[in-house]
User: Fold this.
Amino acid sequence: MEIHVISDGKQTVCELTKRIVMIHDEVDYIHIREKTKSVSEILEIVSILLNNGVPKSKLVINDRLDVALLHEIPNVHLPGHSFPIEKVRRMNPDLRIGRSVHSLQEAIECEKAGADYLLFGHVFPTNSKPNLAPRGVQQVAGICQSVRIPVIAIGGIIPNNIPKLSGMNLSGIAVMSYVIASDNPKNALQELRLSLVEVRNRENTV
Assistant:
């Protein structure tokens, strides 16, 4: 399964870029999700990452389509309040477009609209959404069975609960604070990767 690491908006430009440069070779995608930073700061983040060897193919720009196009980043992620998928696809047919969804109906609609992958959550309890009940693994499984595009689970994912996501044709997991806010991001990633490998090995022996 893929590992997506998403920035949480709590680090400075310097702190965030240092952490991403440190871990980029151990993840599949890095989402730049900086809701409180200015466009110039987000552009600076992307420039620093590219200048330090982070491949464009690994970067995903959240919501800021203008930043992605300016730096020719091939991946964008659209939150529910963002641009319509159809419009972005029509204007930029080569972009890889992801969409955040929170229900089966929304997932089906976004697939029909042309999304390349879906980010679904939050699956487990998470401090980032303390007043919202988790949607749970059954909803993830239902979406994986109902759409043909990749589904990425997000929300409260740690090594200990990754086994609960096995056996549902999930394409990957996405994490925020567990990695990006960790005192040791590389170690946190290694623990996630080890848990994913153990789950895959268990599935292959069934």
Q: What stands out?
A: The two ends are 18 Å apart (CA to CA).
